[in-house]
Automatic annotation (TrEMBL):
Belongs to the Nth/MutY family. GO terms for molecular function: hydrolase activity, acting on glycosyl bonds. The keyword ATP-binding does not apply. It catalyses: Hydrolyzes free adenine bases from 7,8-dihydro-8-oxoguanine:adenine mismatched double-stranded DNA, leaving an apurinic site. Keywords: 4Fe-4S, DNA damage, DNA repair, Glycosidase, Hydrolase, Iron, Iron-sulfur, Metal-binding. This is Adenine DNA glycosylase. The lineage of its organism: Bacteria, Bacillati, Actinomycetota, Actinomycetes, Propionibacteriales. PROSITE patterns: ENDONUCLEASE_III_2. Its cofactor is [4Fe-4S] cluster. Its EC number is 3.2.2.31. Residues 51-203 form the HhH-GPD domain.
Length: 302
DNA sequence: CAGGCGTGGGG
DNA sequence: TCCCCAAGCCT
């Protein structure tokens, strides 16, 4: 290559080049996920995004299929008691998401005529929908241009553009600015870029053991060029599990999911030995609305 | 804003 | 076995 006529070297890769590489890679390697099919509705996309918050694709897929079969439109879910959503949620984890999705369906019916709203601000106002999910639905379901910053996108951009292994625990202003600078200008390309970078992070540029040999951005990746330096930022405290309220709440709710209707409060005793903790968790589940107390000293799903 | 909130699979 | 998660949100 003749460098004598090349322009001054820009250490940063050309955004358009990144876009083309990611779009081409996605066209060849994207997974055929049900919520990406051409017949998927905005409601289907929204449901998938809520379910995928902290839960792997493999476990979401079958529940999503059944959910959409049962409640193909927001109004179908909104007409049900919230407990039916909690029951159908099964073992996806974080069941408060089921409650919020049900509440979102009701808000969609009451405030948006039963149609999933298309603007970021309207989506953000729905229960259970934060910055990421609002941007994702607006982008994936409605083809709009938004900065979609999930853990996958953050990791890819951090590696390729900043040369670090992992992003900081919380999104910084500089990180968001960087993502914005690299967003394609037009809606269509920006939406394709968002889903493409996410997929690249999920399949190739993974948190552990990334497959740089299969990465379309390998030869422009700052992290790879730097020799894959290890993460040196603040360490997020490892989450304990055994004996926590989270485990206790899960056990308690599992009793209700396993039966059709309400159960005597006494039926929860076998689910957790520590009586104090059990009562505290029952109280918190009641407070969250995941559990309701009924007459005759019984408890049930809402 | 740090901490709470489920679950089951893989290294 | 034990540890680390996996497309965050809310307070």
């Amino acid at each position: 290559m003749d460098l004598s006529t090349a322009p001054a070297e820009d250490p940063r890769p050309d955004p358009t080049d990144l876009h083309l590489r990611v779009l081409a890679w996605y066209a060849d390697h994207a997974r055929d996920l049900p919520w990406r099919r051409s017949d998927a509705t905005p409601w289907g996309v929204l449901v998938s995004e809520i379910m995928l918050q902290q839960t792997p694709v493999a476990r979401v897929a079958p529940v999503w299929e059944e959910w959409l079969r049962t409640w193909p439109r927001p109004a179908d879910l909104a007409a049900e008691p919230a407990g039916e959503a909690v029951r159908a949620w099964g073992r996806l984890g974080y069941p408060r998401r089921a409650l919020r999705l049900h509440a979102a369906a009701q808000a969609i019916v009451e405030q948006h005529g039963g149609e999933v709203p298309s603007t970021y601000d309207e989506l953000l106002a729905l229960p259970g929908i934060g910055d990421y999910t609002a941007a994702a639905v607006a982008s994936f379901a409605y083809g709009q241009r938004h900065v979609v910053l999930d853990t996958n996108v953050r990791r890819v951009l951090t590696r390729v553009l900043r040369g670090a292994e992992l992003p900081s625990p919380a999104v910084t202003r500089a990180e968001r600015d960087l993502a914005t600078e690299h967003l394609p200008d037009d809606d269509r390309t920006a939406a394709a870029w968002a889903v493409g970078v996410m997929e690249l992070g999920a399949l190739v540029c993974t948190a552990s053991r990334p497959s740089c040999g299969r990465c379309p951005l390998a030869d422009t990746c700052a992290w790879r060029a730097a020799g894959h330096p290890s993460y040196d930022g603040p360490v997020r405290r490892a989450q304990t599990w055994a004996g926590t309220d989270r485990q206790c709440r899960g056990r308690l709710l599992d009793v209700l999911r396993a039966t059709d209707g309400p159960v005597p409060a006494q039926a929860l005793v076998g689910a957790w030995d520590d009586a104090d903790q059990r009562e505290r968790c029952v109280a918190s589940l009641l407070d969250d609305g995941l559990l309701v107390r009924l007459e005759g000293d019984r408890v049930g799903l809402p």
